[in-house]
Amino acid sequence: MPSLLAEFAAAIASRRIEVVDLTQTLHPGTPVIGLPSPFAQTKPFAIEEISRYDARGPAWYWNNFSCGEHTGTHFDAPIHWITGKDLADGATDTIPVQRLIAPACVIDVSREAAEDERFILTPRHILAWEREHGLIPKGSWVLMRTDWSKRTDPERFLNMKADGPHVPGPNADAIRLLAAGRDVNGWGVEAVGTDHGQAFSFEPAFPAHALMHGANKFGLASLSNLDKLPPTGAVIVAAPLKIRGGSGSPLRVLALVERG
Question: Is the pLDDT of residue 68 over 70?
């Protein structure tokens, strides 16, 4: 009898399990969060060629690159926020690796986000989703599909206005329900950060960070291809770089989806 892992590998090879890439491509034009003065800023992604089959290295091609931990499709570890700073397993090198693979629930609010770029996800939307798809299981990723990743122009993606970013996201009660009421693994979005664009004015401020990370939960931002996932049934592989004391990192996020 084939082992469970052998069956799994065979299902991937035969494409009975599809691997969906949820990651945006990193490049020098990748949009990054800009903070108001006097806060320190993250560096944008930069790449520098070392050699390319030439006198600098005749048989090899490679590059140096640099960027902030929270650039492009990235992982937010609990110590990213002050509420999670004292967690012993809250850094990218101390997170239990079993938590880096988990099932996903996808809440589709793409229609609402298209109608209102400042759409706020509330417990009402989560409970409506659960009435149709069942209770969100403990230890799941909850991903908010807005189709925001289809905004390929950086200015439209960041969508900065005079009063701050106009970007959809959750309110504090929605995050409380997920973190405490459902004990999820983490929260993921297609926008540049896991919070609503106006979350600086929420109570508490930036609840997707403050409440999720304080509860030792994770974040995923700048996801893509959420329209290719079912509401339930996908499994997410999200392994950040093992940076000592890291608050997060860019990463390749993969979804495993069973296809009939």
Answer: yes
With CA atoms as reference, report the closest residue to 168 among 126, 203, 205, 118: 118
Q: In what order do the strands lie in the sheet with 248-250?
A: 17-21, 253-258, 235-238, 101-108, 141-145, 186-189, 218-221, 74-76, 248-250
Integer Cα distance of 61 and 39 in angstroms: 37
Q: Quick one: pLDDT band at residue 75, thresholds 50, 70, 90?
A: very high
Beta bridge partners of 82: none
- Taking CA atoms, 10 is separated from 5, 17, 74, 171, 222, in Å, by 9, 9, 30, 42, 31
pLDDT digits (tens, 9 = 90+) for 131-176: 999 999 999 999 999 999 999 999 999 999 999 999 999 999 999 9
Q: Catalytic: 213?
A: no
Q: Is 219 in a helix, a strand, or coil?
A: strand
Distances (CA, A) of 5 to 2, 12, 38, 96, 255: 8, 11, 52, 21, 17
What are the residues facing 62 on neighbouring strands?
51
At 138, which amino acid appears? K
Among residues 80, 125, 196, 209, which one is catalytic? Answer: 80
- Smallest CA-to-CA distance from 259 within 239, 229, 225 is with 229
